[in-house]
Hints:
2 helices; two-stranded antiparallel ribbon; eight-stranded antiparallel sheet; mainly beta; about 40% strand
Amino acid sequence: MYTTSTATATVPGAAAVKFSFLIPELATFVTGVDALYTLNADIVRDSPVNASGAFVQGGLNGSFSFITTQAITVSGPRFTTHTYAAGSNLLSGVFSEGSIVGNIGSSAGSSFASGLNGGTITFTSDFVDFTGVVNLDRAQSLTAVAPLFGRHAGANNALSSFRAVAGGQFSSDPQPTVNFLAAVPEPESWAMLVIGFGLVGLATRRRTSAAA
């Protein structure tokens, strides 16, 4: 299973996509940015198909990456301003025991991977830090499957080759740490700042009254 650079290419290649972070702190800066998506995966075992034609093709092991093709600057009150150059890693990962799910004869299905049911998945990014994040998921829809999902005759239910349009999301729990996010003062520091601002305002009013 792999991405191709065009709708008719037959060799692995990077597909041009739009990438967005849903993390609130980054959504303003990274929404619909141009990126190259690469997926390469191997199926290490055949898929069982039940009487109704439904199948779960497990044993999908591979890697993926989203690399930005444009410079991205994060700035504002909550950030230490930083510019990511084109070629920066938006999100990359390695997974094992992923699956393709669908029905024989259908033009739609899904592909997913997680750390459940014996699977493993790891994420890396130049924009966020996944240290300590253990619950990760990759979920993608597969549409416009052509030819329709099928299997090789006499090949132990192995799926036939197909092309599809993929779209989806990658998630983690808890949320990763956003890089270059300005430090937020501790509650005690906030209290001291509020008191300090109040005293300045009071002193200003007193001086104004005295002058009048």
